[in-house]
Structure prediction request, 152 residues.
Amino acid sequence: MQFGVGYRHAVPMGTTAKDEMNKFWSKNAQLNRPLSPHVTIYRWSVPMIMSITHRGTGIVLSGGVSAFALAALLLPGSFPHYLDLVHTLEFGPALITASKFALSFPLTYHAYNGIRHLMWDAGKGFKIPQIYRSGYIVLALSILTSLGLTAL
Prediction:
């Protein structure tokens, strides 16, 4: 029986997804197969940590921009009003400096690591020593740029 051009070998479903999953797990248990490797069995490495951090900074930056935009749309008053409100709180210089670094580091790290990913997309830098070297360069540039922005 032929259903169409792309479905030559298609067979009507005789079971549900739950049945298929139960069959899958019972077969794995019967054959004594292990579960897929989990992050806990791997030795942590710089590229692994940088990949996780890149995703995390992307989520944080996206959430921060979205929250700031939503606040700008929904809160009464204008930006100068809220800026004056922050100035009246009189935070100490240590907290202001730490806050500036905490805001600038995710942005610089994500930007530099994004450039690194673009280089990978171009097919460059895939040898293990290059991956580590570019990772350390990204970390150094991110910290130095963040310190520079913090000093402004």
Remarks:
- The chain has a mean pLDDT of 89.
- The helical segments are 17-30, 46-74, 79-88, 93-121, 128-151.
- The CA atoms of residues 45 and 129 lie 13 Å apart.
- The chain is about 70% helix and 0% strand.
